Amino acid sequence: MLLARMAPPTTDPEALLAAAQAGDRSALARLITWVEQGGARARSVGRVTFRHGAAYTVGITGAPGSGKSTLTSALVSQVRAGGDQVGVLAIDPSSPFTGGALLGDRVRMGAHVLDDGVFIRSMATRGHLGGLALATTEAARVLAAAGKPWILIETVGVGQVEVEIAGAADTTVVVVNPGWGDAVQANKAGLLEIADIFVINKAERPGAAQTRRDLEQMLELSMDSSGSSGSSGSGWRPPIILSVAVAGDGVTDLWAAIGDHRRDLEASGRLEVRRADRLSGELRHIMAARLLERANAATENPEFERLRDAVLARSLDPWSAADQLLGIQD
Amino acid sequence: MLLARMAPPTTDPEALLAAAQAGDRSALARLITWVEQGGARARSVGRVTFRHGAAYTVGITGAPGSGKSTLTSALVSQVRAGGDQVGVLAIDPSSPFTGGALLGDRVRMGAHVLDDGVFIRSMATRGHLGGLALATTEAARVLAAAGKPWILIETVGVGQVEVEIAGAADTTVVVVNPGWGDAVQANKAGLLEIADIFVINKAERPGAAQTRRDLEQMLELSMDSSGSSGSSGSGWRPPIILSVAVAGDGVTDLWAAIGDHRRDLEASGRLEVRRADRLSGELRHIMAARLLERANAATENPEFERLRDAVLARSLDPWSAADQLLGIQD
Asked: Please, are residues B261 and B171 in contact by the beta-carbon 8 Å criterion?
């Protein structure tokens, strides 16, 4: 009768958050799963965690293989050396075979798995009703409410949504490798726009000095045209740090640069401005997600099948079908 | 009085499409710009082009630097050698400095720029109200209506939206390089799911044979679990082609494999099933886009500022604010 004596898992977000704050990792994991799933339960979690203070978020982004996971792991060590707890959100492509995210980043973070002050979560890139960006924002808020004052968000820096997520952090670190100047496809412009700090990782390889000159030249151009660069507003010039993350070289420089940027944002009042902008954007995302729920509900209407069949038969175009289903008159 | 005698540019989609069909490239470019911009004009273009037949679409996806642009350019030559016209949509990160897409792919396609039978368009990855996937679908339909029986869609195969777009083609080619097995981050699972054909490009590099064995093993596993692989449904096993695209090696093999896959889809009836599924998905995307227009309209409501300020002051949570703005009761 062991089962009968066990308390059923709670479904109350307040109680789960209290458990997470007391160190219950499975409660924390469940809260993040709920915000990933969207819908009414995600909203109830959001309402509870919104009342808590924000954590300082650092986005780390770069192409596959650039070494950003190794750098993220090294930053976890830096935060822990200062005595603070830290949450890590790794935005990984989802696997259709396992139904979940790849374990790669968690394996790479192995050294931190046994540390109770570190909570690492891989987030699937698909299946978020309100979009991955909104799910990541909500997951970061859960971690903050659970008592993590630092949150590291690691994303693949290629792709529309992934760059947006990294750029929405308080401090955004863009990781490149020597020779990136060759790859026109590497989304240089998009990454320049969001970078508060550049890291040239694998700096022992040929071409590091040239890559540094290329970056400096691009920063000159963008400072000339706007009086500033990065997303910080005027005054901050993104530093360029050379690192060999696997050997630990450059990590303390990066950590110091993150501290400099944080102090700059706080002293100038731009941290509050930046966070207010993000909250406005979040409100728009939430509105869109609510409307998408309604669109999905409309597909359960028997009319949906009838009108879809008319579209398939090309007797109706999909724009007219959508407006009929939604009751919109042009 | 030269200006007075010039006809103003037409704003009628029917007239523009007729001009595009007659070879007017600027008319074709303008139609695609309109579908990129979304809104009522995009819908009017969609209604006109929807009445025309579909083209055969080939998605080419891979990591930055994998050589997919070189392969795409070689495929353009193959289509042209057969006498058909071809449209190319290159999904590029947008540049905030130029306001448009990077020119890289167009430069690389230089050999085709003077060929009237080829139309190449870089699409910005941001600023699409209904999403990049919907804008790409509509742009492909414009090219088809303008008389291109083949459309190649090249995307960076990293990122949620970009993989979705490539996977929505009739035939999807996934380009990898020797050694990709090392990069856990390379979204292997997501790419396996959408691949109809694999190309190991830069096959002269060490590790090509090992990469082929890795891919074959992954295909075995997925064929075992589902009885098929790729998105084709049962019966088709994605071939693995080795290429050195810069030297032209392997390109005719790839072109032959695309033809094989097309014949397999057509003979089995799966082409129609696949296209019907895509059209159902498009209808959902269109409904979501229409609702997003409404969410944006709601942000122009004076109430939006008042409620946003309440959220910023933390006296209201954003979920409650969204529901108030949208008139939704939970």
From this structure: yes
Q: Does B43 touch chain A (CB under 8 A)?
A: yes
What is the value of pTM for the model shown? 0.70
The beta strand positions in A77-170, using DSSP E, are 86-92, 118-124, 150-156
Q: What is the mean pLDDT of each run of 10 residues along chain B (330 residues)?
A: 54 93 94 89 92 92 82 94 94 42 49 83 70 88 97 80 81 87 51 88 92 86 60 76 94 97 95 89 83 76 87 89 79
- The answer to whether the Cα torsion of A205, A207, A209, A211 is positive or negative is negative
Give residue A232's pLDDT. 46
A292 touches chain B (CB under 8 A): yes
Nearest CA in chain B to A328: B290
Tens-digit pLDDT profile for residues B61-112 = 887 778 888 899 999 999 999 999 999 998 865 433 223 334 444 455 666 7
Contact B282 A318 (CB under 8 A): yes
Any residues with CB less than 8 A from the CB of A65 and at least 6 apart, and which?
A177, B182, B183, B185, B186
Backbone dihedral angles phi then psi of residue A135, each to the nearest 5 degrees = -60, -40
Query: Inter-chain contact A93–B47, Cβ cutoff 8 Å?
Result: no
By the 10 Å C-beta count (0-12 exposed, 13-18 middle, 19+ buried), B11 is classed as: exposed
Q: Is B297 on the interface with A (CB under 8 A)?
A: no
CA angle, corner B123, sides to B119 and B129, nearest 5? Answer: 135
Decide: B33 and B128 in contact? Cβ < 8 Å.
no
Contacts of B193 (CB under 8 A, 6+ apart): A96, B167, B230, B231
